[in-house]
Amino acid sequence: MSILINKETRVICQGLGKAGTFHAIQCRDYGTKMVGGITPGKGGTVKEGFPLFNTVHEAVQKTGADASMIFVPPPAAADAIMEAADAGIKVIIAITEGIPVLDMAKAVRYLKQKSGVTLIGPNCPGVITPDQCKIGIMPGYIHKAGGVGLISRSGTLTYEAVFQLSALGLGQSTCVGIGGDPIIGTNQIDLLAMFEKDPQTEAILMIGEIGGTAEERAAEYIRKNVTKPVAAFIAGQTAPEGRRMGHAGAIISGGSGSAVDKIAALKAAGIVVADTPAMLGSAVQKAIEIAKSKK
Amino acid sequence: MKIHEYQAKELLAACGATVPKGIVVSNSEEALKAFDQLGGKPVVLKAQVHAGGRGKGHFKGHSDPQLGGVKFIPNRDKVKSVADVMFQYPLVTKQTASEGQPVSKVLVQEAADIEKELYVGMVLDRTIGLPVLMASSEGGVDIEEVAAKSPEKILKLPISPETGLLPFQARKVAFDLGLSDKHIDQAVKVFMALSQVFLEKDCSLAEINPLIITKQGNIEVLDAKFNFDDNALFRHPDIVEMRDLSEENPAEIRAGKANLNFIQLSGNIGCLVNGAGLAMGTMDIIKYYGGDPANFLDVGGGVTAEGAIEAFRIILSDPKVKGILVNIFGGIAKCDLIAEALVKAGREVGFKVPVVVRLEGTNVQKAREILKSVQAELPMIRSAGDLTEAAKLIVSLSK
Fold first, then answer.
1. pLDDT digits 0-9 by tens, B255-272
2. pLDDT digit string (tens) for A42-83?
3. Within an 8 Å CB–CB cutoff, is residue A113 touching chain B?
4. Less Cβ crowding at N or C end of chain B, within 10 Å?
5. Is A210 left (phi over 0), alpha (psi -120 to 50) or beta?
6. Nearest-CA neighbor of A30 among A131, A112, A177, A120?
7. Nearest CA of chain B to the CA of A31: how many Å?
8. What phi and psi values does residue B214 have, to the nearest 5 degrees?
9. Helices marked H in A183-258 — which ranges?
10. Which residues from A are below 8 Å from B235, CB to CB?
């Protein structure tokens, strides 16, 4: 088991430009069932072995696709997300960075009218279930199948975490990059609920950042609803107030969303918090040991 | 992106809000002319800088510490002398750097008879994923204190991005603020204008503080502050026109041109990292082991040799920098390419301070061999086995 995606998942790519095509090939090489791509006006042709379709509706009808990886450039990306949802795609993974916030506010509201759709991202590295399915830009080879579920707002920091986990012999059930933007499709709590239910997942690592109050709310949720061991890290402990640190979401304003507040909330919920980004793997190990000693 | 107060007021006025009469000037001669054009009545001179806290600020190097960036001028005699100070000395506020911000524009504004100050603003509420209109009958400079101490005094209303603020919602907010009947229509106009600018121009923050009721019974925008979503600027050339580069850090502008995400900080350890989260984490680990980062720098996933070289140049242009930590997790970006870029940068820029390099991920072995082969030529480059070792090493070398 895993969450969101597995070896049966049938994936299309929206936005087969240079980056989209490169990563679609990488995903296929990893073993993902890439069943086609969307390029309006090029329907019926084939690019790099991917059959192309004019619309997502047509692709779904002809390939049975149930997931989409989106690389469409920012001005049209929100439209691509809504098209995928309207065509019946169940898992939409939006890699695109730089989508206007108000476009996402509208897209997320549109998706709420559709049932059973999950949007991951935007501005995220994607989702991987090791050895089964990779939808995104993460380097596949650092992953190892196993029992740690990973939720992260960051990209390279996620790779750092996976690398440390794999080195310690801790494989991953599914790794989800939820994205660094102010408005994202799926938040920490949604995924915590999925990992709690997933029998393969034995422990959870949550990597957060300064800005917003999502980690504080997740901590509260974990305290009440999650029985599995959880470890966490918050990036941006030393970031100055009022400055945007790369991700639109990573900004502290008026005392809310600071690392201090988040870490205090996480610790109060019994979560093991890594002091530095070099201790991500060992924090999970520690959380697992603490849980064992309590049994 | 930020704009000046006078620009924010122009946007609001174009959507139907009432703003006090004012003229923007670039020198003290023009200020005097503006005073006369406004009828020779008392005015307020307002230094136009992006930072807040102007009224309580002071002009660095000027003899009168009481003279702030917002000054009431009762008569013609004082106009020129005060304007001269504003144009001559940099303004220091709690939001500027300690060296202050030079002033190139001053708004000469008709002084208002203030009966009451209100607050109205719009911002994105990330929790619900919607813009929210906020309003309070307790406006003025201390709105942040109101927000912290008595949040119930701030009304909040989620706005649908499809329909914008609807007239009935605006009316309800006006009545809930306790405004009297004769003020309702004017307040509604201001709220509608605020929502219109926010949604049409992709603001990330839009504040009117204070919105005033004058003794003559008018509702006017006394001060306004707008920030815009950088990701949406592609569809707003008119807003991009308003950008004032003199307000921004030169190193950050330069980095922006090279597609580098750079923020100047006050410490002495330069950082070069790929990915925003890892870049923040790298700053954290430097601090954890007793160091102080000089900058945040995310070179992005597809870093090129040219990008890395420019990044080194920008970091090294800061004389405070006593050492550099390079932390790259090669995913799609391959470590050997980054090592080659490092060597090239070393040859072109010249490393006079220690550069500790931590590389991990794709092709890391090849990368380590490359760095080993140039050890004699570029002795300032030191390789570290892992992130903890790298952080400890750069902190000790930078002391």
1. 888 888 898 888 999 999
2. 999 999 999 999 999 999 999 999 999 999 999 999 999 999
3. no
4. C
5. beta
6. A131
7. 17
8. -85, 165
9. 188-197, 214-225
10. 75, 100
Res. A244 pLDDT band, cuts 50 70 90? low
Reported ipTM: the value is: 0.89
C-alpha B239/C-alpha B257 separation (Å) is 19
Q: pLDDT tens digit string along A17-26? A: 998 999 999 9
B127: chain A residues, CB-CB within 8 Å: 212-213, 217
Distance between CA atoms of A36 and A89, rounded to whole angstroms? 13
- Is the pTM higher than 0.95? no
Q: What is the DSSP string of B198-231?
A: HHHTTEEEEEEEEEEEETTS-EEE--EEEEE-GG
Quick one: tokens of A107?
């897209």
B236 falls in which pLDDT band (50, 70, 90)? very high
Rg (CA), chain B: 26
Q: What pLDDT score does A250 carry? A: 53
Helix axis angle, B76-88 relative to B28-37, nearest 10°? 140
Are A276 and B234 within 8 A, CB to CB?
no
> How far is it between the farthest Cα atoms of chain A?
61
Q: Are B323 and B398 in contact, with CB atoms under 8 Å apart?
A: yes
Q: How many residues does chain A have?
A: 295
Closest of B7, B24, B150, B126 to residue A178, by C-alpha: B126
Q: Are strands B130-136 and B155-158 parallel, antiparallel or unpaired?
A: antiparallel
DSSP β-bridge partners for residue B383: B357
Both tokens of A31, joined, read 């073993």
Percent of chain B with pLDDT over 70: 98
DSSP designation for B242: T
Query: Which residue matches tokens 């991920």?
Result: B361
Taking contacts as CB-CB distances below 8 angstroms, the residues of chain B near A235 are 277-278, 280-281, 284
3-state SS class at B338:
helix
Question: Is A23 in the active site?
Answer: no
Using alpha carbons, select from B287, B244, B363, B235 the residue that is nearest to residue B5.
B244
Enumerate the H helices of chain B as residue ranges: 5-14, 28-37, 76-88, 143-149, 167-176, 181-200, 237-241, 250-257, 276-288, 305-316, 335-349, 364-373, 387-397
A242, closest residue in chain B (CA to CA):
B95
